[in-house]
Amino acid sequence: MAKSLKDFKNTILIADENINRRNNTSSRLRMLGYETEMSTGGFHIIHLLEMAQENGFRYRMLAIFEDMEDMAGKEVLSLARDIEDKENMPILYLSKNKDAQEVLDTMQAGANEYISDIGNFKTILDKIKKFAPLKK
After folding, report:
1. Averaged pLDDT for residues 35-42
2. Region 125-136 average pLDDT
3. 111 in the Ramachandran plot: left (φ > 0), alpha (ψ -120 to 50) or beta?
4. Helices (H), the chain
5. Distance separating alpha carbons of residues 124 and 118, to the nearest angstrom
6. What is the mean predicted confidence (pLDDT) over 10-14?
7. Which of 102, 116, 53, 99 is nearest to 79 (CA)?
8. Residue 102 pLDDT > 90, yes or no?
9. pLDDT of residue 82
10. Cβ neighbours of residue 121 under 8 Å, at least 6 residues apart?
């Protein structure tokens, strides 16, 4: 059964090839009251975003964990920004890379936030709450 627009109001799309981290992040978000949808690759993310748009839905947020096997994270970010703008769908980009130029390039590509401490769930959850507070 397809989700209704109401069902998507607190749905966060998580893009991560690391199944343990993806499941842990999803579980923690569900405990806070969010719904989650998970993707393992860049093409899948873009497909989900396009299908949501075609059906009048919008994800509350997209969380991209680094590069995926089928597509670079910044390419996913750029393609996602072609579908949704910063105000309507915040994107958190999570990477172990702490290089200042990498952070700047990612932010200019359309990320709302760049998190380099990807093992710190508190930081990740705090940023999600900031950019995508739960809607009633």
Report:
1. 92
2. 91
3. beta
4. 19-32, 42-54, 73-83, 100-109, 121-131
5. 7
6. 93
7. 53
8. yes
9. 95
10. 24, 25, 28
Tracing tokens 């997209």 back to the chain, one arrives at 62
Span 107-126, average pLDDT = 92
The helix (H) or strand (E) run that includes residue 93 is strand 91-94
Other Cβ atoms closer than 10 A to 9: 16
- Give the N- to C-terminal CA distance of the chain in Å, as an integer: 22
Q: Are 80 and 62 in contact (CB under 8 A)?
A: yes
Residue among 121, 13, 9 at smallest CA distance from 76: 13
Q: Answer whether 77's CB lies under 8 Å from 57's CB.
A: no
What does DSSP say about strands 113-115 and 91-94: parallel, antiparallel, or unpaired?
A: parallel
Distance of alpha carbon 59 from alpha carbon 52, whole angstroms: 8
Tell me what pLDDT residue 1 has: 41
